[in-house]
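hiii so um. not sure if this is the right channel but i have a protein structure encoded as tokens and i wanna go backwards to a sequence. like what aa goes where. can anyone help
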């Protein structure tokens, strides 16, 4: 159900879109710092992290839309959708952050061995 890697979410507040662009750029910069002789799994993990964070922003936008609908119509289904999508967004964001931390720690570990 997630977005493809590097696919820009479209229904976000402008600040969220800017945050996503900045984070995407930083992840790309981090990939460039990983020498080619290091395991390709590290760059693959960064791609997965970006996809997870993209999915988080998407779920966040759906949550915001749902809470807006709830305020307009008081339908509890919209409130439930808000909570569900916000929880999903938080989960994907934490997973993405953990993947980035993992790669950074592995790169530091490999550099120390040289």
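sure thing!! here u go:
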């Amino acid at each position: 159900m997630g977005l493809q890697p590097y696919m820009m979410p479209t229904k976000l507040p402008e600040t969220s879109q800017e945050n996503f662009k900045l984070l995407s750029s930083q992840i790309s910069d981090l990939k460039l710092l990983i020498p080619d002789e290091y395991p390709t799994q590290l760059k693959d993990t960064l791609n997965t992290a970006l996809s997870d964070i993209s999915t988080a922003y998407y779920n966040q936008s759906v949550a915001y839309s749902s809470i807006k609908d709830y305020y307009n119509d008081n339908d509890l289904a919209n409130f439930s959708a808000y909570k569900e999508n916000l929880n999903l967004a938080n989960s994907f964001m934490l997973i993405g952050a953990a993947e980035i931390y993992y790669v950074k720690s592995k790169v530091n570990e490999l550099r120390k061995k040289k």
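oh and DSSP finds three helices and no strands in the chain.
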